[in-house]
Amino acid sequence: MPAFGFQPHDHADCIRTTLAQADAYCAQHKLKLTPIRRRALEILLAEHRALGAYDLLAVLAEDGLGTAPPVAYRALDFLTSAGFAHKIEGLNAYIACAHFGADHSPAFLICTSCKSVAEAETTATQGRLGEAARAAGFTISRTVVEALGLCPQCQEAPCA
Amino acid sequence: MPAFGFQPHDHADCIRTTLAQADAYCAQHKLKLTPIRRRALEILLAEHRALGAYDLLAVLAEDGLGTAPPVAYRALDFLTSAGFAHKIEGLNAYIACAHFGADHSPAFLICTSCKSVAEAETTATQGRLGEAARAAGFTISRTVVEALGLCPQCQEAPCA
DNA sequence: GCTTGATATGTTATAGTATTACATTTAGCA
DNA sequence: TGCTAAATGTAATACTATAACATATCAAGC
Asked: Which domains are assigned to chain B?
C-alpha cells in the first residue's frame, strides 16, 4: 500500500476522488482534461512516488496513447500548469498533487530509499525564504522546497 | 558589476578572498584543490550567477584543462562535496557558495530575468519543512530551497 | 629509491532528460 | 460551412549526466 504522508490510506478512493475533482475543476475553468491528460494524471496518482517523464511515457505507450517524448511532456505541462501535478526538481520527476486545486507552494519530503514522496502545504511568503526575499526586495513567483532523507519505515528497515 | 544578495560589492576582492579561504580549507582538511578544481571554482566565482556544467566545461576547455564532460562534472562533484559550490536544482546549474566553509542548508533567490542568484543561510530543521519532517517522523539529510522570481533591479526595468 | 595503493585525469561511449519544429487533426464558434 | 485555436503525431535534435576503462600522479611505508 502506497504512502500518503507516509501513512497507509484507502488508495483506490484517493485516486477516484482526485480524478473527480480534476474533472470538476476543468469543467469549471474551461480546461480540457483530454484522454491523454486524464490517463497521465491517473498514472501519476497510482503511486505516491515521483515518476520520470519517460516512465510516464512508457505507460502511456502501453495504452496506445503516444510514443514520442512530447506526448509525455505536454501532458505534464498541462497537469503542472493546472496544479494537478508537481515537478520534483531534485529527482527530475513528477508527482500528482496531494492537496488538490488551489494555487499553492508545495514542500516535499522525499525518501531517498523507497522513493516515496509526501507533500506538505506551505506559503511562499512565510518562513525564512520569505524573510530573505523581503529583505532583499525580491518578488517570489515560484518556490522549490524539497527535503531529501529517510521516511519512518526506511529508518527502521534500511533495505532498498 | 555582479550582484551579491543583489547588492553591488568589490567583486575582485570577493573572488580573491574566497579562493584563499578554499586553499586554507583544503590544506586543513587534506583535500586537494588541483588546478582543474581551483580554476573551476574561480570560473564559478566570476559571477554571482549559476553556470551550467557545459558552460563551465567550455571555459575550462579554453584554458586547455579538458574537453570531455566528466572533467566538468568531477570538478563540480568535488566543489559541491567540499561545500565550495551548490547545485541549483531548478536550473540544472551550479554556483559558487557565498557563505564559505561550514556545512549548511542554503536557500536561493533566483532572478528569472537576469539569472542572478542570491544565497541565504538557513538550517534544515527550522521552518515549515522541519516542522513537517518532525511531524512525519522523517529524517532530513539534504534540503533544496529555491525561490524563482524577480530581483529588485529587474522589477524596475523588466528587460532581458 | 621502489613498490604499492589511493586518488586524479584522459577519453570514448552512452544514458537520461527535455525541447524545437512542423505537419495533421480536432473542437468550438462566427 | 469555414475559420481559428488548441491538441496531437512525429522526427530530429539539444541539453544534462554518468559508466567504463585506461593512464598518470602522488604520498606512505618498506
From this structure: 11-156 (1.10.10.10)
For the segment B73-114, what is each residue's pLDDT rounded down to a tens digit? 999 999 999 999 999 999 999 999 987 755 678 899 999 878
Q: A71 CA, D2 C1': separation in Å?
A: 29
Q: Is the CB of A157 under 7 A from strand C?
A: no
The DSSP-derived string for chain A is ---BTTB---HHHHHHHHHHHHHHHHHHHT----HHHHHHHHHHHTSSB-B-HHHHHHHHHHTTS--SHHHHHHHHHHHHHHTSEEEEGGGTEEEE-SS-SS--EEEEEEETTT-BEEEEEE-TTSHHHHHHHHHHT-EEEEEEEEEEEE-HHHHHS---
HSE-up of residue B119 (Cα within 13 Å, Cβ side) = 21
CA dist B84 and B65 (Å) reads 20
Q: Of chain B residues 66-85, which have a beta carbon within 7 Å of strand C?
A: 66-71, 74-75, 78
Contacts of A136 (CB under 8 A, 6+ apart): B5, B6, B109, B118, B151, B152
* Minimal Cβ distance to B147: which of A118, A140, A151: A140
CB contact under 8 A, B142 and A148: yes
pLDDT at B159: 41
> What does the alpha-carbon distance between residue A29 and residue A16 come to, in Å, rounded to a whole number?
20
* Interface contact B150-A138, CB threshold 8 A: yes
**CA of B35 and C1' of D24: distance in angstroms?**
15
CA B120 – CA A128 distance, rounded (Å)? 9
How does residue A101 score in pLDDT terms, banded at 50, 70 and 90? low
Nearest by Cα to B146 from B120, B113, B128 = B120
pLDDT reported for residue B126: 61
Residues of B in contact with A132 (CB under 8 A): 107, 109, 118, 120
Task: Enumerate the residues of chain A whose CB falls inside 8 A of the CB of residue B143.
Answer: 145-148
